[in-house]
Each structure stands twice: as structure tokens, then as C-alpha cells.
Amino acid sequence: MSGLISISPSLPTTERYLLLEEQVKALVYGEEDLIANLSNIMSALKYGMNYFWVGIYTVAGDQLILGPFQGPVACTRILKGRGVCGACWERNQTIIVGDVDKFPGHIACSSSTKSEIVLPVRNKEGEVAFVLDVDSTNLHDFDAEDQKGLEKIVTIIESIL
Ligand code: SME
Fold first, then answer.
1. What pTM, to 2 d.p., does this model score?
2. Residue ranges per structural domain of the chain
């Protein structure tokens, strides 16, 4: 298993995501436990990309429950349709929010979060089983390149569910 995750911030974004993808694939190789894999993936994302907060919420009944994450403590339960995470689940699509103060119903787990991207993670039936939430302390920190890169990570997560 690989240890240190180091992805130079000076590399172009697409290259950073490619390296991240390789590292995530290597991390989960040969390990079957989902919590162990998700935990390591969150760490790889946090330390590889230097996000402020990254975590995964699990769909459980009518709410999302906090799962493995890296960063400050966060809200543990989010109802369907609430906040960016709940909206991502309800719409079954990735949501990029450039300014969280302008997103109606945004749930401020941390007042430091200024922008975020939330992606659905689907099970084999195509239903949302988890959402991946990535937060930044800068406004407008996520764009289509981040979406593309993170969707590759989501594909890896979907393959190990
Ligand atoms: N930002 C989320 C809440 C989760 S925390 O940011 C970790 C939202 O509005 O759904």
C-alpha cells in the first residue's frame, strides 16, 4: 500500500487529478472493506488536493448520515432536498456552488466554507447511495475540471460498492 500522498500544487489541475486517480486506485487495490477504503480515499483527496473539507455522506432512509471525512467536525444528518448535499441527492446530479451564501438553504457546517462541489455516488441500480462533498474556503474554487476529475474518483468508489 502506498503511504505518502504528495501531488504538487504547481501541476496543472488535470494532471493533479490524474495522479489522484492513480493513487486512489492503488489505495483500494486488494482491500474489500468499504469503510476502510472510503476513509483512505477521503485522506488521499484531502492531502492530495489540499481541500478544506472532504467527506462522504451515506443515504439512509430519508436522510444523509455523515461518513468518513477529513477536516473540521461536520453536521451528522441532512434531510433529502436540504442544503447542497440534500439537493445533489434529490436531483441525482453534481452541484457546484461558487458562493454558498447564494445557495438557498445551504447548511453551514463551517462558516469558513465559501464554495463547494457535491457529487452523487450511485449504486448498481443507478440510485444515489452516497454523496461526496468537497468544500473550499475560497469563493468559486471549483469548475468543470474539478467536476471531471472528481467524477473519475466517484467512478472508482462506485466500482468498490
Ligand atoms: N455543505 C453541505 C453541508 C455539509 S458540510 O459542508 C460538511 C450542504 O449545504 O449540504
1. 0.95
2. 13-159
The atom number, within ligand 1, closest to the CA of 55 reads 7
Q: Is the CB of 135 under 6 A from ligand 1?
A: yes
Q: Which residue has the cell 436531483?
A: 91
In this structure, the residue with its CA closest to atom 1 of ligand 1 is 107
CATH architecture of 13-159: 2-Layer Sandwich (3.30)
Hey, what's the torsion of the CAs at 6, 3, 23, 75, to 10 degrees?
-80
Query: pLDDT tens digits, residue range 71-80?
Result: 999 999 999 9
pLDDT over 90 (residue 5): no
Q: Give the position of cell 445551504.
A: 106
Q: What is the best residue among 54, 73, 133 to mutate for testing ligand 1's pocket, by most ligand atoms within 8 Å of CB? A: 133
